[in-house]
Amino acid sequence: MGRLDRVLRWVWLVIGVLLLILLAGSLVFVASEALSGGGGSASSSPADTVKADSAGRAKGAEPLRYDPPDAIRGSATRIVLIRRGSGYTYRSTASSAPASGEAPAVNVAFLEGTGARLLLDRPAYIRRVTYPGAARAAQGDSLRWIAYEMALEDADGNGAIDESDRRSLYVSDLDGRGLHRVTPAGYELRDWAPQPGGGLVATAVRLAPGGGVLAERAFVVDASSVARPFAALDSVVDAASRLMAKP
């Protein structure tokens, strides 16, 4: 009988330990539900989880659209403009483009043989890309480079690089290499136009701290893609300004 008593005591001891473990687990579960605001009505369904994940992906990685490769006159390289995807929707069996026109470009790709590469390694807002042979920009046929009007910095601090940021004029070789800015630092691009012989003339306004009236200046970009002041044009504009000041 003494041996049987010892066995029974061990059995009840094991049962007691198991009951304590179950009780502790139940308390932990109840506490975690209370802290997380759990409950049948507040818990997330699988469909809600999918929607949340989709929204996060859409916010973090906006879908991009791109044009078909286009030939660049004078080069074996082909160019592809990559645009923001906003404004494109799926209807029935076809995707529709935004009625307001094309979305702005955010990068440019170049195709050579079976390979491809990007022009930029950073976010950008590209207002216009002009190159020899472009179907929509015949004015660029006389250019000896590819010209880009774009902003690369969030100048206004709104958290995005967009049409409200300061643009500069950049050029690259016809194969997309050698990208560099041609409008001087401290100026914002206003407009530009190709010139006979393959060069171009750009007008830009000088940025001044605190705003105020911004002076406009012209620059000639020569065959070496270096910008220099267009002194003759600036001088006649200054003369016109003095005439306007006369009574």
Secondary-structure map with pairings?
Elements: H1 2-35, H2 46-60, E1 64-66, E2 70-71, E3 78-84, E4 89-91, E5 94-96, E6 105-112, E7 115-118, E8 125-130, E9 146-151, E10 168-172, E11 180-181, E12 187-194, E13 200-206, E14 216-221, E15 227-229, H3 231-245
Explained architecture:
There is one protein chain. The protein has three helices and 15 strands. The protein is α+β, with helices and mostly antiparallel strands and 247 residues long. The protein has one domain (53-245). Strands 1, 2, 3, 6 and 7 form a five-stranded antiparallel beta sheet that branches. A four-stranded antiparallel beta sheet has the order 8-9-10-11, with no helix packed on it.
Task: Write down the overall mean pLDDT.
Answer: 78
Overall body shape: elongated
Number of helices: 3
Reported for the largest beta sheet, the result is: 5 strands, antiparallel
DSSP strand content: 25-35%
Helix content: 25-40%
Number of separate structural domains:
1
Succession of helices and strands: HHEEEEEEEEEEEEEEEH
Structural class: alpha+beta
Total beta strand runs:
15
- Low-confidence blocks of residues: 38-59, 94-100
Overview features:
single chain, four-stranded antiparallel sheet, 26% helix, 3 helices, 247 residues
Task: Put the structure in a nutshell.
The protein has helices spanning 2-35, 46-60, 231-245; strands at 64-66, 70-71, 78-84, 89-91, 94-96, 105-112, 115-118, 125-130, 146-151, 168-172, 180-181, 187-194, 200-206, 216-221, 227-229.
